Prior knowledge:
This protein is α/β, with parallel strands linked by helices. 39% of the residues lie in helices and 12% in strands. The strands form 3 sheets. The chain has a 4-stranded mixed sheet with strand order 2-1-3-6. Strand 8, helix 11 (304-311) and strand 9 (321-323) form a beta-alpha-beta unit.
Amino acid sequence: xxxxxxAISFTLLLSFPxxxxxxxxxxxxxxxxxxxxxxxxxxxxxxxxxxxxxxxVGGAISRLGTTNPRMKIAFLFLTNTDLHFAPLWDRxxxxxxxxxxxxxxxxxxxRISRPGGRVFKGRFIAAKRTQRASPTLISAxxxxxxxxxxxxxxxxxxxxVSQHCIPLHSFDFIYNSLFTSQFPEYQSFIQIxxxxxxxxxxYVARGERAMLPEVPFDRFRFGSQFFVLTRxxxxxxxxxxxxWRKFKMPCLNSxxxxxxxxxxxxxxSMEDPKGCTHYxxxxxxWTESVDGHPxxxxxxxxxxxxxxxxxxxxxxxxxxFARKFSPDCLKPLMKIADNVIFRD
Length: 344
């Protein structure tokens, strides 16, 4: 006689291999892995950039035949949507050729329209897929830095910004503020925090001992995803292999996993804490965050008073950038660009 419970058990047993085979298609993974080919591509890029930077700015000076070259700011745009504020940035950069370079890492899995205008034309670099709260954002930022290092030896500051960022001052104000000290004594503007209440949860997101021995808990740091690094610190970032092996590991607790907010502050805190300001130049409002995202400003909130407030800082420097803004903020921002934002 046919035993129904046994038949059900046997059917379930046979189903397990099919579940494992088809589950990824039925329930696609939210985690974006960094493939071995992508990792090897990045390593090759980093090596080329490192070798090209061995003689640094000194070599660039000798090749240009001058002792007073004009240093540049490399603006690194990290995006997975259209650059909605491209017209505002166009106006920001206008008239300052020779003092900046632009590099854009656009997620290839997103359908992103190339912004019109001369400034952003041809600025897109070879990019790979990115995902929030994953090591892919670290890879993208490193890829941008390596490309900028390789492209122009006079790139002296590396400003990482997002598609939701806007400038809070004129280009002249930002440029002159960054280059007030004598090279090579520039500092990197990166937030580095160590005493936040949630640090332990973030530290053990990959497992309680996963970060050891390279990163003990007392050396683990937290900070803003967006920063302005000096050339020497950009080189530290692309040369690193030791900490990257830890931070690229997948997280067991995704709710506490924000590698892009930990890797750069931890690495630079361990390598050169005195060479960093420990604060960021990008203003972000976390008091009204939603689902891990900071406060998003809406068109009705755009005003001169908001710009003045966002500039305010507890540090020596005024905030120079701010995020995040909804795409439809472009029109009201353009209305106050010349008379407020770019008037210092």
